[in-house]
Design a protein that fits this description.
Low-confidence stretches: 214-227
Distance between the termini: 91 Å
Strand content: 15-25%
Bound molecules: ligand C2E, magnesium ion
Number of helices: 22
Mean pLDDT: 88
Largest sheet: 8 strands, mixed, barrel
Number of strands: 22
Helix content: 40-55%
Shape: globular
Radius of gyration: 32 Å
Number of domains: 3
Length: about 575
C-alpha cells in the first residue's frame, strides 16, 4: 500500500501526538505542526495528500484562515482538508465549508475511526480528480481571456489577494500597474472591431515582452508564466510586480511598457500609433486588499489620462515626483560622459607626522545644464543600481591618472592619487586589466595610485572580492577602506584582506575631542590599525582641536574642510605647490 502523507495542524501537543500515532498505525506518513503559519510553509515546501486542521488555534491565524489560504495557493486547490471543530455548533461547521474544507469531524476525536475517515476522503478526492480535467477546461474559460489568452480580472484579483498575503508575511512590497490605451475607442469606432481586436492582441504581446526583458525580471521578480499580467476587459490591462525593493522600480517597468506601446502598430495596410496611460499603486502604502489596490491604481490611471495621457502616475503624488526625478536623472546620467558634464575635484590629504600634504582624493562632480549640480550622494547610488557606474568609474580612473601625470610632469609635490571605486567595479571582470592599462597609458607608477573601497563592498561577496583584491594588490597599487566603522566587518575578516589604510568615517570625527563615544571609537580604530600594520586617515576634520586630538593618538593622516575643501584641478595644483 502506498503511504499517503498527511499534514496535521493543531496547537495541542497531546492531540498532535494521538493523531500521529493513530494515523501511523494504519499506514500513513505524517507531519505534525503546532500552528497555521508553520503548516502553510510545510505545505508549500513538502506538499501533503490531505490536511487535518484544527479550527481553534489561539497562537497566530485560525483554522478557517489556514483553510482558505490553502485553497488559494496554486497546489492546494484540490487537497482534501478535514477540519477538526471543537464545538459541535452549526456556525463553525458552516464557516469550515465556506473556507473550503472538504469535511469536518468534531472533538473529541474517535481515534479508532480516524484512519478510515481519512482514507475515505482520499478515495473520494481521487475520483474527483478524474473529473478535474474537464473542470480545468472550464477553469480556463472562467479565468482566462480568449482574445489575448491572458488571465482575466477574476484570476488577477485572486492572484493579487494571494500575493498580498505572502507579501504581508514576508514584509515585501508589491506594485500594481493599471494600464489603459489612449484613444482606443476611436480606433475601434473608426477602423472597426476586427482591427481593435488586433490592437489588443498586439498590446498583450508587447506587455509580455516588456516584462520578460531579463533585467526587468531580475529587478522586479515578475513571474514568467504570465500570471502577473492580465486583461481586465476592454482596453484595460493590469500588471502585478512582486518583490520590488523600492517604489520607484514600478516606474521603470511602467516606462518600459509605455515606450513599447508607443511604437508603430502595423496590420496589413494599416499603420497606427497609440499611447497608454498607466496608474501605479503600491502595497502596503496604497492599500492592503486586492480591491483597494486595483481601485487606487485605476484612479491613478485616470489622473494620468486627465493630465494628457501617455504617462504614468502613482496613486501618491509625492511618489510620482520622486520617480520622475529618478528617471530624469537616469536618462541624463547616461549621456553625462559624452556631454562632458563630469569633472573631478581634488581634496588634499595631510600627513600629520610630517605636517606636509601627501596627496589628494579625487571626488566626482556632475553638473548638468538641464538639472544643475547633483551631489554624488544622489547620483552614485543611481549609477550603481543602473550599472552605469562601470563606465563612469572607468572615466574617473582615467581622468585621475592623467591628472597625476600632469602634476608629476609639472614637478608638483605629490605622492598619492586616491580614487573611489564601487564594489561593482571591483567585481567586474577585467577591472585589474583596465587599471593596468590606464596606468601604462599615463606612464604612471602604480604606487601613486590608491583605490578606496567601502566596507560594504568587502562584505558583498567574500571569496570573489578577496581574489580580486589580491590581483589588484599584485599590480603594486595601494588599497584603502573608506568610511570605516559604518559597515560591520569583523576584525578577523579584515585581516584576510590586503589593505594598506583605514579611513575613519567622518561621523566618528564629530565631537571627537570631548571625551565622547566617538573619541573612544577613533582610539580603538587607530590602535587596531597599528596592530595590523595598517595606516589610518581621518576624514571630515573640521577643527584644529580634532586635528590635535588625532595627532596625540597617533593617527597618520587627516582630510577635511579645516585643511582644505575639495578643489578643481588647477586650484588643487596651486594649493599643493604653495604648501610644499
Ligand atoms: P567619500 O569617499 O567618503 O568622500 C569624502 C566626502 O566627504 C566628500 O563628499 C567630501 O567632499 C566630504 N568632506 C571632506 N571633508 C569634509 C569635512 O571636513 N566636512 C564635511 N562635512 N564633509 C567633508 P562628496 O564629494 O560629496 O562625495 C560623497 C561620496 O560620494 C564619497 O564619499 C564617495 O563615497 C562617493 N564618490 C565620490 N566620487 C566618487 C567616484 O568617483 N566614484 C565612486 N564610486 N564614488 C564616489
Ligand atoms: Mg573616499
Ligand atoms: Mg569616506
Amino acid at each position: 500500500m502506498q503511504n499517503n502523507h498527511i499534514l496535521i495542524i493543531d496547537d495541542d501537543p497531546v492531540i498532535r501526538l494521538l493523531i500521529t500515532q493513530a494515523l501511523r498505525s494504519t499506514g500513513f506518513q505524517t507531519t505534525a505542526v503546532k500552528n497555521g503559519e508553520i503548516g502553510l510553509e510545510s505545505f508549500q515546501e513538502n506538499g501533503a495528500d490531505a490536511v487535518l486542521l484544527d479550527v481553534m488555534m489561539p497562537d497566530g491565524i485560525d483554522g478557517f484562515e489556514v483553510c482558505s489560504e490553502l485553497r488559494n495557493s496554486p497546489n492546494g486547490k484540490h487537497t482534501p482538508i478535514l477540519m477538526m471543530t471543537g464545538l459541535d455548533d452549526l456556525e463553525s461547521v458552516n464557516r469550515a465549508f465556506e473556507s473550503g474544507a472538504t469535511d469536518f469531524i468534531t472533538k473529541p476525536i474517535n481515534l479508532a475511526l480516524l484512519g478510515h475517515r481519512v482514507r475515505y476522503m482520499l478515495r473520494a478526492a481521487n475520483t474527483t480528480s478524474r473529473l478535474l480535467e474537464s473542470e480545468r477546461r472550464l477553469h480556463r474559460m472562467a479565468y482566462f481571456d480568449s482574445l489575448t489568452e491572458l488571465p482575466n480580472r477574476l484570476f488577477f484579483k485572486e492572484h493579487l489577494q494571494y500575493m498580498i498575503a505572502l507579501a504581508q508575511r514576508q514584509k515585501q512590497k508589491l506594485g500594481v500597474l493599471f494600464l489603459d490605451l489612449d484613444g482606443f475607442k476611436r480606433i475601434n469606432d473608426t477602423l472597426g472591431h476586427h482591427l481593435g481586436d488586433q490592437v489588443l492582441q498586439e498590446t498583450g504581446y508587447r506587455l509580455r515582452n516588456s516584462l520578460r526583458a531579463s533585467d526587468v525580471l531580475i529587478r522586479t521578480g515578475a513571474s514568467e508564466d504570465g500570471a502577473s499580467l492580465a486583461r481586465l476587459g476592454g482596453d484595460e490591462f493590469t500588471v502585478l510586480l512582486s518583490r520590488i525593493s523600492r517604489n520607484e522600480d514600478a516606474a521603470s517597468v511602467a516606462e518600459r511598457i509605455r515606450n513599447s506601446l508607443s511604437e508603430r502598430f502595423k496590420f496589413g495596410d494599416h499603420e497606427l500609433y497609440t499611447t497608454s496611460s498607466i496608474g501605479i499603486a503600491i502595497y502596503p502604502e496604497d492599500g492592503d486588499s486586492a480591491e483597494e489596490l486595483l481601485k487606487n491604481a485605476d484612479m491613478a490611471m485616470y489622473y494620468a489620462k486627465r493630465s494628457g495621457g501617455n504617462r504614468f502616475q502613482y496613486f501618491s503624488n509625492r511618489m510620482t515626483e520622486a520617480a520622475l526625478r529618478r528617471l530624469k536623472l537616469e536618462n541624463h546620467l547616461r549621456k553625462a560622459i559624452e556631454r562632458q558634464e563630469l569633472s573631478l575635484h581634488y581634496q588634499p590629504l595631510f600627513d600629520i607626522t610630517t605636517s606636509k600634504y601627501c596627496g589628494v582624493e579625487a571626488l566626482l562632480r556632475w553638473n548638468s545644464p538641464e538639472i544643475g549640480q547633483i551631489p554624488p550622494s544622489e547620483f552614485i547610488p543611481l549609477a550603481e543600481e543602473t550599472g552605469l557606474i562601470i563606465g563612469i568609474g572607468e572615466w574617473v580612473l582615467r581622468e585621475a591618472c592623467s591628472q597625476a601625470r600632469v602634476w608629476l610632469n609639472n614637478a608638483i609635490p605629490f605622492c598619492r592619487m586616491a580614487v573611489n571605486v564601487s564594489g561593482m567595479q571591483i567585481l567586474n571582470k577585467g577591472f585589474a586589466e583596465q587599471v593596468n592599462s590606464i596606468l601604462s597609458e599615463n606612464n604612471l607608477d602604480p604606487r601613486f595610485l590608491e583605490l578606496e573601497l567601502t566596507e560594504t563592498a568587502l562584505i558583498a561577496d567574500e571569496a570573489g572580492v578577496l581574489d580580486h583584491l589580491k590581483t589588484l594588490k599584485k599590480i603594486g597599487l595601494q588599497l584603502a577602506i573608506d568610511d570605516f566603522g559604518m559597515g560591520y566587518s569583523s576584525l578577523s575578516r579584515l585581516k584576510l584582506f590586503p589593505i594598506d589604510r583605514l579611513k575613519i568615517d567622518r561621523s566618528f570625527i564629530i565631537d571627537i575631542e570631548n571625551a565622547s563615544e566617538n573619541g573612544a571609537i577613533a582610539n580603538a580604530v587607530i590602535a587596531m590599525a597599528v596592530s595590523m600594520s595598517m595606516k589610518v586617515i581621518a576624514e571630515g576634520v573640521e577643527t584644529d582641536k580634532q586635528l590635535q586630538f588625532l595627532k596625540a593618538r597617533g593617527c597618520d593622516e587627516a582630510q577635511g574642510y579645516y585643511l582644505s575643501k575639495p578643489l578643481p584641478a588647477l586650484q588643487a595644483e596651486l594649493f599643493l605647490a604653495a604648501h610644499a
